[in-house]
Amino acid sequence: MLIEMGFLPDLIERSSTDRDPEEVVTILRDHRAAVDLIQDCVAAARPLTVGLIHELHSILTRHQNIVDGLDQFEQPVSFPLKRGAFKDLPNNPRRPDGSIHEYCPPIHVQSEMDNLLTWYHEDENVNPILLSAWVHHRFTQIHPYQDGNGRVARALANLVLIKHQLFPVVITRDHRPQYIEALEKADFGDLKALTRLFADIEKKTILEAISLPPDTEPEPTTAVLEEVTDAIGLKLRKRKEEIRQKLRGVNSVAESLQESADEYMRSLAENVVSKLRETADLRLGIQVIRGGPGQLYNDQPTEHWYHFQIIGTAQETNHRINFDESHYFVRTRLSGADIPWLTFVISFHHIGQELSGVMEVTTFAEIFYQATEDDPQHTSPVKCMDKPFTITYKDDAATIRNSFFDWANECFTFAVKTWGDVL
After folding, report:
1. Coil, strand or helix: which one is 337?
2. What average pLDDT score do residues 78-93 get?
3. What is the phi/psi pair of residue 69, to 5°?
4. What is the distance between the alpha carbons of residues 283 and 243, in angstroms, rounded to a whole number?
5. How far is it, in rounded angstroms, from Cα 116 to Cα 122?
6. How confident is the model at residue 212 (pLDDT cuts 50, 70, 90)?
7. Residue 278 in 3-state DSSP?
8. pLDDT tens, 337-368?
9. 363 closest CA partner among 382, 380, 350
């Protein structure tokens, strides 16, 4: 709403923030100005320098005049904020346990910032999400300004992402506990948690973006220069079809993982059945089948199976499923006499309004209760997935197979536990 109607204080619910709406609007406008500067820098291929970082700090703090701190007697005091200038006094905060978190001393700030920029320019071609996380953390370690360091760090991280044609990462209130924990791990040399957080947010943003419906319909072709436009149209259609075939390469990744999942789920199911036979003298049957284009069950097509349940899992992730493209699944069923049956399904499906080259892998489970004297037969759904597994046409199935198995194992384990609770 703020984007559609402008930054207006009346549009901000007071329950959503502990700040005055006027102050929130001012902060948002400063952030918007910083984003404009970043976009201009990327468009003009302006290199990252200390001068540019000073500009970002000046913009992000242009309506902030003071910074709170402690004097030599540890009494609260306010200092004038110096915009676009490195700190000349220490800004080491005290943790809740009373210990001091030490940032770079003022005397070393300039040299450490020079080092940051040197290393950044040497490694500009590494994975952009990893580079973004590293720049963010390294800057926060230095903490070169009196205040506003977090704002500048996030702006620099997003500059790296935008430069590599990715979406900016937005750290929300919901992310804050994980964000703080990841920064603390990075302080001890482990950057994986922060990189993973950035990657998860980036992936979620991309998936939501490609799930949006188009805003406008294409303009009809005019009759002017008909032969020329027809030739151009033919060329573009051919190019588009080539791109579509390239994007459909994700189907090969899905088919390979589906084949592997068939064998893997069979081994997991056999392990469960073996354990229950040993510990509870329970005799169970196992059925694992694959479904998808050209894959029949009892001589009947299977590609349309489980659309309703899969749409339900997509609603949890807020992603649009494209059933116009190929859909694959692996179904594992554990059954026995006089006990509920467990059905566990792994689904591979395209997401997005248009063909995107991205498929999402989701799971769902159902417990089937046979009819009794008191109750008719019925099925109960089981939520067994924390987050989906995503594959793209650029992925190599062999490379991601183990990660996929770990994810599938976690989902199946949760489904089996829930099923075990009702046996």
Report:
1. coil
2. 89
3. -160, -165
4. 51
5. 10
6. low
7. helix
8. 889 999 999 999 998 878 888 899 999 999 99
9. 382
Which H or E run includes 342? strand 341-350
Single out the residue of 379, 367, 366, 345 nearest to residue 422, CA to CA: 367
Phi, psi for residue 258 in degrees, rounded to 5: -60, -45
Q: Which domains does the chain have, with CATH numbers?
A: 2-209 (1.10.3290.10), 250-422 (3.90.1150)
State the distance between the two ends of the chain, measured CA to CA, in whole angstroms: 49
d(CA 414, CA 396): 27
Q: Where are the beta strands (DSSP E) in 155-284?
A: none
At 263-312, the pLDDT tens digits run 999 999 999 999 999 998 888 999 999 999 989 998 899 988 999 998 88
| Phi, psi (deg, nearest 5) at residue 390 | -110, 135
Two tokens, residue 230: 């027809």
What's the pLDDT band for 243 if we cut at 50, 70, 90? low
- Round to whole Å and give the CA distance between 264 and 258: 10
Cβ atoms within 10 Å of 385's Cβ, excluding its own: 22
pLDDT at residue 44 greater than cutoff 70: yes
Instruction: Name the CA radius of gyration of the chain, rounded.
Output: 27
Task: Locate the DSSP E strands across 74-207.
Answer: 76-80
Model pTM above 0.70: no
| Residue recorded with tokens 């597994």 | 389
* Nearest one of 303, 300, 266 to 285, comparing CA atoms: 266
Nearest alpha carbon to residue 365 among 378, 349, 350, 381: 381
The identity of residue 303, as a single letter, is E
Backbone angles phi, psi at 114, to 5 degrees: -60, -40
Mean pLDDT for all residues in the chain: 84
